[in-house]
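Quick entry, no commentary yet.
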Amino acid sequence: MAVPELSDSGPELEAAPAGPPRTWETASDGYRRALVACQEAAQPSRVDPSIAEAVERQTAAMRELPRRAFPEPDAVPDDAPAPIEQARTERRRQADVSHAAAVRRARGERVACQAGTATAAPQPAELRTTA
């Protein structure tokens, strides 16, 4: 399939008019009269008040939906820790309990090893695990 060649002999494109763009002050009288006639002939907007009220009610209901679906959390007093801080404190406490149990067990095993006896340290209750 042959590609047509471009030639310079085609119709020339019209150049954009030079000078500033036309404004109301520079528009012709015929244009001004036609524009005024068109604006006068345009029908005023006919909005039924009951429809406008229904639209407002619907808009208010749509704005209310996210507030009901995602309510704001209760205000936390200034002196109370935030929920994230409460969780961190609880995790630290659990980690400290676990660390203390591990240290006690390691000390018991070290004492048993130095004495040459089997580990006779009582096993503590199973620690809680988290998911």
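second:
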Amino acid sequence: MEIAVAILNWNGKSWLEKFLSNVVENSPMATVYVIDNASTDESISFLKQEFPQVPIIQLDKNYGFAEGYNQGLAQIQADYFVLLNSDVQVTPHWITPIIEKMESNPNLAVCMPKLKSFHNPEYFEYAGAAGGFIDTFGYPFCHGRLFNSIEKDEKQYEEDCEIFWASGAALFVKANIYKELGGLDKDFFAHMEEIDFCWRVKNAGYSLQYIHNAEVFHVGGGSLPKENPFKTFLNFRNNLFMLHKNLPDDCYKRIIFKRRLLDAVSWLNFVAHFDFKNAKEILHAHKEYRKAIPDLEQKRTAIPNKTFHAEIYPKSIVWAYFVKHAQRIDF
């Protein structure tokens, strides 16, 4: 059995300096690879000098997160791919419980460990916490994180469970299923591509799980800081892409219409706070979504069995959080 831990890098020498030795030391059962998105810093020379045992896959340009992984993983032969962010600190035996669970269940395609904050290790981390879900309008949330409210880890998520999406910060996937489903959608570039992929995994009839006794610590914001307007553009555009592709036929137009109204409210909120850069990016996102509809329709047709899965919260987390002041969603 071959396990490949693949770290995607773009001008991330500082993260490799900080975390790569930790990953290599704690992953003796796996081969650790670095997929480099045509970095212009000293990443490659650093890797060759300090980690000659780590294979480097050098790409010819910056393909972003989605296609960068697709291009790199196509050059790796393994039974399991582990997509790992460069700003993640792993723990001893972080791989074993997940692989054992996946080996024992042929239908289990994707898993993630418990994701906690590197800077505040008693708390979960925003990007995945204890497993991801979405609501009926495509807003992502997690066990342990609802919008910007992040829970302290008080052992409240100490059972493995079915989830809707696994964080791309530390995502385990059976290689044959990754290839079968075409990998990540390159048109997303970055952000939400793992949720779209996991939705396609669900639609294909496979299972996804959070594994409680595997744990890693994530810095977060290593590629794009939260306040970066380009991140706003990607999140709003890609959410519409994801909904258009994957929602069931009987509801996708209605839900996308309502989601676009909610995006208008977000735009008004940015304007009210004089944040015109982010407001502009919401308009940009909707313009790019409209241009992409013909391609999205083709992708939608190619996805069979589009389903409103049990792990999709059937109400609005916007209403639950901002109006009802909910701090967590149980369903």
